[in-house]
Design goal:
With 502 residues, the chain is α+β, with helices and mostly antiparallel strands. It has 15 helices and 20 strands. Strands 1, 8, 9, 10, 11, 12, 13, 16, 17 and 18 form a 10-stranded mixed sheet that branches. The chain has a 4-stranded antiparallel sheet with strand order 4-5-7-6, with helices on one face. A two-stranded antiparallel ribbon has the order 2-3. Helix 11 links the parallel strand 14 and strand 15 (378-384). The protein is globular.
């Protein structure tokens, strides 16, 4: 495996190129690894992490979650659940105002949820509230919102922390929400250019959080090349670097002017669409999982900062993980399974971005290619421009890369693996599996509920169409001239209201 690691280091060096980067020093300057040529600021219609970074500055949610998915008050200061888990009551903060000056009420919250649920909105995560009907989203009083579900919905508070549930004013149109912001958050955009190289936001003077935001303006941009992002923060052209690429972590650790803050974990994955040959044969899927040396993959992809993972949405640090022991590499068993399936000389095309779609993705792809070759499998890596990857490749090719991070494992299980899941990337359709997920989701007993979700994760790891052998901590780099950054908030949903730089 020494040869494999050496070739991966060489690959990483080839992937890096430099570019110039300069910004207005009067603003807090935040850079993200993800940057498409067509951004959106409508919270309901986000596409990637870059969109969420922007919308989270202007729009706030009823609840917030930390990186361990503990739920905290947002625009709702408290909430209660009925004994049967079917009714939730949220008490909103009083005196909170939108950027146009009008006060937040339960009518705005109810409209936001119904808008996400409305198919005409084409919202990301529209099915997250599938247990509710629009008429059961009730503005009971000026500051009280009641939600009634068809089945027990114990995860309502953590669900409403999703980025698509940023609260917008009652009656807002998609056209309005696409051109400017009007939220309750600390920063605002007066005029939005979706193709701009950076987004400039100004402080909301009427923000309800006393003394915040600390900075008068905020600039958000994307630097997709790792060494360019390193150069930018070391030169002081960037104050905060979100999800620093593992390639540059050694250099960042050695810089006395930069602090590193571990956050939640990202699970980069290879998806095999199970309704397409050769991945419609479970023996092929199992073989392609067994070729991976998970310890070596974690070391290669994360520069020693990450951990192995077991082909399901729960990292080892999660209580939902069915095991904390890496599935062992077994080349001989992989060869036998491929022979049984008549695929001894299997060749597959693996699609990913020409630059990382998530930090470490290209190293992951190359490492997987080399590991698979030990079982006689030829992996042809096909790259496309990262800024168009999600529109041109994602869920459109039989084998492609994706990632999940900062999302509640039961949420991912429901959305990515059930028959009607909005992001059923592998086209996994198993009615019995769907029933298992519904039973776990509806279980109000936390002990038995957790056990059910662990069993579901184990089933996906064994037979599902996902290869997810590594967990990558999202490490944020912050110049030490800046204070107030909170690493406990789920990555990309941070509002930078408390950050102040000198």
């Amino acid at each position: 495996m020494h040869i494999l690691r050496s070739s991966i280091i060489a690959l990483a060096s080839c992937l890096i190129s430099g570019s110039s980067f300069a910004q207005d020093t009067q603003c807090l300057r935040v850079s993200n690894f993800s940057w498409r040529t067509a951004r959106t600021i409508d919270p309901a219609r986000w596409v990637d992490a870059g969109d969420v970074v922007i919308s989270s500055q202007a729009y706030e949610r009823l609840t917030d979650v930390d990186r361990t998915f503990g739920v905290h008050p947002g625009l709702a200061e408290s909430w209660t659940m009925s004994a049967d888990g079917k009714e939730w009551t949220f008490k909103l903060r009083e005196g909170v105002k939108f950027q146009d000056g009008h006060e937040l009420t339960s009518a705005d919250a109810a409209y936001t949820l119904r808008r996400v649920m409305n198919p005409a909105t084409t919202a990301t995560g529209a099915k997250d509230l599938s247990a509710l009907k629009p008429e059961n989203v009730i503005a009971k009083s000026r500051y009280e919102l009641v939600l009634k579900s068809n089945t027990p919905f114990v995860d309502m508070p953590v669900t409403l922390a999703g980025p698509q549930f940023g609260i917008v004013p009652d009656g807002s149109t998609t056209e309005q929400l696409s051109s400017r912001t009007n939220g309750t958050g600390p920063f605002a955009i007066a005029t939005f250019d979706p193709s701009a190289a950076r987004v400039v936001m100004t402080a909301n003077p009427g923000y309800w959080g006393a003394g915040r935001p600390k900075m008068k303006c905020l600039e958000i941009s994307g630097i997709t090349e790792p060494l360019s992002s390193l150069a930018a923060i070391q030169a002081g052209d960037v104050d905060i670097l979100l999800a620093a690429n593992p390639i540059i972590l050694p250099s960042l650790r050695e810089d006395p002017g930069i602090g590193l803050y571990p956050g939640d974990e990202t699970l980069p994955q290879i998806i095999m669409q199970v309704d397409k040959a050769p991945f419609n044969d479970v023996r092929v899927r199992q073989a392609l999982k067994l070729v991976v040396d998970r310890e070596a993959m974690a070391a290669a992809v994360t520069a020693g900062s990450g951990y192995p993972a077991n082909d399901n949405p729960a990292p080892f640090s999660s209580p939902f993980a069915f095991s904390t022991t890496p599935i062992p590499q077994d080349i001989e068993k992989a060869k036998a399974l491929l022979a049984e399936a008549g695929q001894s000389n299997l060749a597959v095309d693996l699609y990913t971005g020409a630059t990382d779609i998530t930090p470490g993705a290209l190293v992951f792809a190359q490492a997987y290619k080399e590991m698979a070759s030990l079982a006689g499998v030829t992996v042809n890596i096909q790259t496309v421009p990262a800024d168009s990857y999600w529109e041109s490749v994602y869920m459109k090719r039989p084998m492609f890369m994706t990632y999940w991070g900062g999302l509640y494992p039961p949420y991912v299980l429901k959305n990515a693996y059930t028959t009607t899941g909005e992001a059923n990337e592998s086209d996994w359709k198993n009615p019995d599996f769907d029933k298992l997920v519904l039973a776990a989701e509806s279980d109000t007993n936390q002990t038995s509920r957790l056990a059910k979700f662990k069993d579901i994760g184990a089933l996906i790891a064994k037979d599902g169409g996902v290869i997810g052998p590594v967990s990558v901590p999202r490490i944020t780099a912050v110049r030490k001239q800046c204070s107030g950054f909170d690493p406990s908030i789920v990555s990309f949903r941070q509002a930078f209201k408390d950050v102040e730089c000198r």
